[in-house]
């Protein structure tokens, strides 16, 4: 076992986040990846720090989540956190990142704009998706390296000044693409053996492979997301990157105690007792003659709930067997707003994030 593989000390969720400055959040579509990434950024900022949340898929998911219009390509403070902390958001775009790259390193912004008008940038990033990925990951890793008061150039990263951001959270592509997205050195190998693009990719990988970077997986207590999580963890481990935590999202509390859940799962509920309870509840008089029928329907619903809970417990056990720290977030009824995000961030903090 090498020092990047899981060990006993990493069973503590706090260890999966401690010491990291770049948190890469991935997960199967539909598991609430963007919500979890935003809550993580807010949790990390809650100790008074400045955190950057970078979205790289071009979906404007963070803007939608925060009830904001589409965000431009700029780092903009969007959420105030406890203790004077703040979350800034960047909706990264490959084309804008390329223009910025040309300006930063070559003073060629006007030339880059001309390439954009000709469609050359879009053409290049379409036929060479590795170039797109290195530009997007490069934007996040540049923010990790940037020092306070520094201009955004590679030479500024050598300063002894404090970092501009205490942490950077990347709302990354889903698990099915995360390995390729992060392995930018391999992706650009066929594009450039030497030169500025290769040097840029090397700087990106230096940050991604560092011990200050963690890759976290968001999942739900369902078989398909859990399987993708297992596959993704294996892939990231093979790439030699540091694994973080598994965020189990949308967890619903059981409605019954263990004894009643077992009885419901075994279809051993007393429907006569259920009918008596429905009658005592004084339902609509129009339903008063159908207590037995309603009790049977209710027993079926309760059994479905019990079986669902049993499945979730099995999936949770499989996730625990991966040896990664697990943190849980509850299922939110009625959608996600800023108050709900603050509650999710608080729950992450209580489980060790940001310590």
UniProtKB/TrEMBL annotation:
Protein origin, superkingdom: Bacteria
UniProt GO MF annotations: ATP binding; ATP hydrolysis activity
Domain ArsA/GET3 Anion-transporting ATPase-like: 23-200
Protein name: Anion-transporting ArsA/GET3 family ATPase
């Amino acid at each position: 076992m090498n020092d990047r593989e899981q060990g006993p000390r990493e069973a503590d969720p706090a260890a999966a986040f401690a010491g990291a400055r770049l948190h890469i959040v991935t997960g199967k579509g539909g598991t609430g990846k963007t919500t979890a990434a935003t809550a993580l950024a807010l949790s990390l900022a809650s100790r008074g720090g400045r955190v950057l949340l970078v979205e790289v898929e071009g979906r404007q998911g963070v803007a939608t989540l925060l009830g904001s219009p589409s965000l431009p390509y700029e780092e903009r403070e969007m959420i105030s956190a406890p203790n004077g902390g703040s979350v800034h958001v960047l909706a990264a775009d490959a084309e804008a990142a390329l223009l910025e790259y040309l300006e930063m390193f070559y003073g060629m912004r006007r030339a880059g704009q001309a390439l954009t008008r000709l469609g050359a940038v879009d053409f290049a990033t379409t036929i060479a998706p590795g170039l797109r990925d290195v530009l997007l990951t490069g934007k996040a890793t540049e923010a990790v390296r940037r020092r306070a008061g520094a201009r955004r150039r590679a030479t500024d990263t050598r300063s002894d000044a404090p970092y501009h951001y205490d942490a950077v959270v990347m709302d990354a592509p889903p698990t099915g693409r995360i390995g390729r997205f992060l392995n930018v050195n391999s992706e650009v190998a066929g594009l450039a053996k030497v030169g500025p693009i290769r040097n840029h990719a090397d700087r990106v990988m230096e940050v991604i492979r560092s011990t200050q970077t963690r890759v976290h997986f968001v999942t739900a207590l369902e078989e398909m997301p859990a399987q993708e999580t297992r596959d993704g963890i294996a892939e990231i481990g093979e790439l030699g990157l540091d694994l973080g935590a598994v965020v189990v999202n949308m967890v619903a509390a059981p409605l019954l105690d263990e004894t009643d859940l077992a009885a419901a799962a075994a279809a051993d509920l007393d429907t006569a007792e259920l009918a008596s309870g429905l009658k005592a509840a004084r339902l609509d008089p129009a339903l008063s003659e159908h207590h037995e029928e309603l009790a049977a329907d209710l027993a079926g619903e309760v059994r479905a709930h019990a079986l669902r809970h049993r499945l979730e417990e099995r999936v949770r056990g499989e996730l625990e067997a991966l040896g990664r720290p697990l943190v849980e977030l509850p299922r939110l009824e009625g959608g996600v707003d800023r108050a709900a995000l603050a509650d999710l961030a608080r729950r992450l903090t209580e489980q060790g994030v940001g310590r």
